[in-house]
Amino acid sequence: MTEAHFYHSRADQHRIGVHHWPARLDQVNGVAVWLHGMAEHGARYAPLAEALNRAGWHLYCPDHRGHGTSIDDACPQGHLGDQDGWNHTVDDACAILTLAAERHPGLPLVLGGHSMGSFIALAAAERTTLPLDGLVLCGSDYHPGFYYTLMRLPLLFERRRHGKRGTSALIRKLTFESWASQIDGASTDFDWLSNDSAQVQAYIDDPLCGFDCTTETWVALVTGLKDIHSINGLASLPDDLPVLLLGGEADPMSANGRGMMALEKVLHAMEQPVTAHFWDQGRHEILNDTCRDEVLAAITEWLGGEIGRGRRQA
């Protein structure tokens, strides 16, 4: 398995750093675009790439603005941008989808993401004009609109205090530190990510992980969440788009999985074709947790079954 890294330029001069793991050309079944979470980067998904490559799928993992290899003066680490960062980031995802489709015409195209990446993936699936074959939401969450309206209030206050590019101890306390405090007997501030101490330490040791995002990034994210989780937003999903939900029932970010289960319920109510798998001991990064082999198997089985079956029937 060989990773190829390249840059894709956007109209505003931003360059998206993209990690690409091609499948063997003699066994290609599809192409996937995967979006990473907040305060991490796409190169961390090499184990996912290995599993998908074995199943015959190409994988592209772009680094979001202000993350990984997608850092510049307009988007320093942790900053999606001074203005309209959410929409630019969603449009970046749509651009990489288009690039993947153009590079691999005729192949099934699946979009997925973890945590913040799952929110961006959902927004991109609602926005893109491409015919997606599947959507994977991992370590995701769901709340009604009024929750995000209330959540925006302290974020806006902190943005006014610290500026758009400033960071906030209060925001960190309300988010990362709050999730960390829910793990009994934790030995690090990031045990909420995984039960696997080696994976937690690798995250801590990675200079491209665990940083504070800016106040503007948090405001942009929560504003975007209100839009994508609205009835109008979810109604923009194609009626027949298969959705795979993956989560941990010990994930503090999603209220121990209840947020993902709420999303499953809403999608079912809208008659979206949904498959869901939840791991009772899984924490936030289930792809890096002790259940990761089961998670990878669930993804590849779904790709070979749900997506493969849909293409055979088409």
TrEMBL record:
GO molecular function annotation: hydrolase activity
Record has Lipid metabolism as a keyword: no
Spans traversing the lipid bilayer: none
Signal peptide annotation: none
Keyword Acetylation (UniProt): no
Protein keywords: Hydrolase
Top-level taxon: Bacteria
Serine aminopeptidase S33 domain residues: 28-290
One Pfam family here: Hydrolase_4
Protein name: Alpha/beta hydrolase
Organism the protein comes from: Alcanivorax hongdengensis A-11-3
Organism placement in taxonomy: Bacteria, Pseudomonadati, Pseudomonadota, Gammaproteobacteria, Oceanospirillales
